[in-house]
Design goal:
Elements: E1 10-12, H1 25-31, E2 36-44, E3 47-57, E4 68-74, E5 77-81, E6 85-88, E7 93-96, E8 102-117
Parallel strand pairs: 1-2
Antiparallel strand pairs: 2-3, 3-8, 4-7, 4-8, 5-6, 5-8
Length: 125
């Protein structure tokens, strides 16, 4: 099910892989044609793991009640916050604490994994 917000992103909140299924990330990445793609891969307890295949700018937003973890698989991912900017390369991760406004961007095609509470709406609260 795609996110129904008016943002120009290809966001899928449905859980793509069930427990005991192989999560084939390379095949999914290869199938992406949108510049800002987000797919929930699986649920682990009360959290979800999401795949992002992104290039370009997102918008400023925050999550009032839950932290968000970003992990770069490939590419370069920049997280702007009001008081600092963090640049992540492959095999680097960063937690944006709940309530912190952030603006993610990727200057090149970047593959990221996100771990966050299942109730988080990617576009923010």
């Amino acid at each position: 099910m795609a996110d129904s917000t008016p943002f120009p992103y290809d966001t899928h909140l449905d859980i793509r892989f069930k427990p005991m299924e192989l999560v084939n990330i390379p095949a999914l990445v290869d199938s992406v044609t949108h510049s800002w793609y987000n797919q929930t891969l699986c649920k682990v307890n009360d959290s979800v793991v999401r795949l992002g295949v992104v290039k370009g700018n997102y918008h400023w937003h925050k999550h009032d009640d839950e932290d968000e973890f970003f992990y770069v698989v490939d590419g370069k991912f920049i997280i702007e916050m009001r008081d600092r900017t963090v640049e992540l390369g492959p095999r680097q991760g960063f937690v944006v604490p709940k309530g912190v406004e952030h603006c993610p961007r990727a200057p090149e095609k970047t593959v990221i994994l996100m771990v966050e509470g299942a109730g988080i709406i990617p576009t923010g609260d």
